[in-house]
Amino acid sequence: MRRVTPRRRQILDTAADLFAARGFHGVSVGDIGAAVGISGPALYKHFAGKEDILGQCLLHASERLLEGARALTEHGGDGDEVRHDRAGRAGHGGGTDAPAGHAGAPEDDVLEALIAFHTDFALSQPSLIVIQEREWGSLGEQARVRVRERQLAYIDVWTRALRPHRPELSPAQARAAVQAAFGLLNSTPHSARISRAAMRDLLTRMARAALTLSLIHI
Amino acid sequence: MRRVTPRRRQILDTAADLFAARGFHGVSVGDIGAAVGISGPALYKHFAGKEDILGQCLLHASERLLEGARALTEHGGDGDEVRHDRAGRAGHGGGTDAPAGHAGAPEDDVLEALIAFHTDFALSQPSLIVIQEREWGSLGEQARVRVRERQLAYIDVWTRALRPHRPELSPAQARAAVQAAFGLLNSTPHSARISRAAMRDLLTRMARAALTLSLIHI
DNA sequence: CCTCGCGGTTAATACTCTTTAACCATGCGG
DNA sequence: CCGCATGGTTAAAGAGTATTAACCGCGAGG
C-alpha cells in the first residue's frame, strides 16, 4: 500500500478531476473506478478508502506547491530581503515571456518567481488547485492538519516575499493580500476561454499589479 | 409554496451557510432542519426538495448581484464609455472611504462602483458568494440555466465597464480579467483575519490595480 | 362551533453509498 | 510445476439518504 505505481497515479489524477468537477461527496468510488476502467471495490487494492484517495491528492498537491516555493527562496539566503540574483523558473515547462523590467524596481525577486511558479501550477493542474482550496475540509483529522500545515507554510513563504514590496502592510494584511492573489491566480479553472499563453501573461500581470501597485490611488 | 415567509428566508440563509461550509452533497436535509430547529421532512412544507433550496439560494444571489450591477450602470446611458457623473454607492451599508483620486483617470466610473458593490456583497454574504461559484453544477437543468444566464449577464456588465479602461484587451481577454478579479474579491471567505473595513480597503485597491494597472511592467 | 389549512411530528420506503468478503486469473521466482 | 502476490471480479452487508405517508395541534373565518 506504499509505493506509487502508474495505476495509483492514474487513479489519483482522474479522482482529482472528478472531485474538482463534482465535489468530494458528489463522487462515488464507483464513479472513480469507472473513470479508470475498473469497477468500484477494486480501488481498495490500491487505497485504504475514498478519503484516503482525496488525502493523497491533497498531500501531493500541497507538497509540490510548498517545495516548489521553497526551492525559489533557498538560494542560500533566508529570503527576507529582495534578491537580485536570477531565480530559477521551476520545472513546469513553458514560460519564455519573462517580464521586461524597466522601472527602478527589481525585476527578478522572489515574489516575481512565486507568481510565475504558482501561475504555471494553476494552469497545468487546475483540478489540484480547485480541490486544494475547497475540499480540505472533507479530510479526516490527521490528514487535514498535515495538508493545512503545508498550505500555511506556503502562504508564509509568499507573505515573506511580499514584505519588502509592501512594508506598510501588517503581517495580517500581507497574509490577506497573498490569499487574495491566490484567488486571482486560481480563477483559471473558471475561465479558460483564451489561450494558455495569453492567460499566463494576463494572470501574472494582474497578480503583480494587485500585489505591488495596489497602494496607488486611481 | 410561493411567497417568502420569514421561515423560508431563515431556512435559505442557514442552508446557504451549510452548503458553503460542507458542500451541497455534504449536507443532509436533516442537517438543514436541525439548524433551524425543526427536523428533516418538515422542510418539504416549504420547499419542493433539497435541490429546490439550493436553487432558490442561487437564484436569489445571482439576481441580487445582477440587479445591483445594472442599477449602477443605468444612469440613462448605456455605460459603454467612461462616465464622470456620480455613481450611487449601492445600498449595502458601510464604505465611507471613497478613493481619493489624483491621477488624470476618472475616479468614479462604473468599474469603480462595481468593485465597491461586489466587495460589499462578498463581505456581507460570503456564503452566497461561495455557493454561487462552486455549487451551481449541482442544480437541475432548468434552474442551472437560469442561474447561469444571470451570472453571464453579470460578467457582461463588468466586461463592458472594463472596456474603456483597457481598450487593448480582446473581449475574451477582458472576460478572463473580470473573472480573475472575481477570484480576488471572492477570496474573502478564505481569509477574514483582518477587520472588515481593512479587508474592504485592501480588496478594492487590489482589484483596482489588477484591472486597470496590470499593463505596467515592474 | 367547527372546519380547514398551516406547519410540524414520526414512521416507512426506496434508494445509493462505502466497505468487506469470497473468489478468480495471471505472471513470476524457486 | 508450485506457490503466491497482484489486481481484478461480483455479492453482500450496513449505514445513510431524500422523499413520501399518515397523523396531529392550533389559530382564524364563516
Automatic annotation (TrEMBL), chains A, B:
PROSITE patterns: HTH_TETR_1, HTH_TETR_2
UniProt keyword terms in alphabetical order: DNA-binding
Highest taxon listed in the record's lineage: Bacteria
Keyword Protease on entry: no
Composition bias type Basic and acidic residues, residue spans: 74-88
Chain positions covered by the region annotation Disordered: 74-104
InterPro entries: DNA-bd_HTH_TetR-type_CS, Homeodomain-like_sf, HTH-type_TetR-like_transc_reg, HTH_TetR, KstR2_TetR_C
Full protein name: Helix-turn-helix transcriptional regulator
Source organism of the structure: Myceligenerans indicum
